[in-house]
Amino acid sequence: MNASLPTHEMEMIVTWGDCDAAGISYYAKTFDWFTNGRMRLLAKYGFPYMEAFHRNGISLVCLTADCAYKKMLRPDETITLRTSVTFFTRTRMTFEYEIYKTNGELAAKGQTTHAYATPEGKACNLKKARPELWNGLAEQWSVFQE
Fold first, then answer.
1. Which DSSP string corresponds to 93-113?
2. pLDDT digits (tens, 9 = 90+) for 81-121
3. Strand boundaries in the chain, DSSP class E
């Protein structure tokens, strides 16, 4: 992963509620973890989702979501979720997620792509719809050039 990309790491403990009846992390919970990582990354860079996007009439609508599972995770296991912005334009944003076990093994790797949308659910150009938000993000994430 490119170190210059906007990135956030958070440590978590897998709970029993994150697991299926066999005591293995349930695949769908991974996407909840991805959401938490995405929200924390945005907040880290000064753009808490609810304040910066939602209350300004912009939603991040998920277009694609995928995950490759490499290692099982069990209750009480400590993991690290690394979230990075890997694509950022006026119309969409892509996040990459990596989940690591404490021994450094990659347990899962995923990606979500989001479009910016108005309250009516219409895709929008963020630079035109909310120029202040766009300019702030573009300044923070100057690694992306259009």
1. EEEEEEEEETTS-EEEEEEEE
2. 999 999 999 999 999 999 999 999 999 999 999 999 999 99
3. 7-13, 59-69, 78-88, 92-101, 106-117
* Cα separations in angstroms, 78 against 50, 60, 104, 120: 28, 29, 11, 40
- Torsion angle of C-alpha atoms 138, 144, 145, 146, degrees rounded to 10: -80
* Sequence-distant (≥ 6) Cβ neighbours of residue 75 within 8 angstroms: 14, 15, 16, 18, 19, 23
Residue 85's nearest CA partner among 17, 4, 11, 18 is: 4
User: Quick one: CATH architecture of 7-140?
Assistant: Roll (3.10)
Q: Say how far apart CA 19 and CA 17 lie, in whole Å.
A: 5
Helices then strands, each counted (H, E), the chain: 3, 5
Tokens linked to 112: 């979500």
What residue ranges in 32-77 does DSSP mark as E strands? 59-69
Q: What is the pTM of this model?
A: 0.93
Tokens standing for residue 85: 């912005």
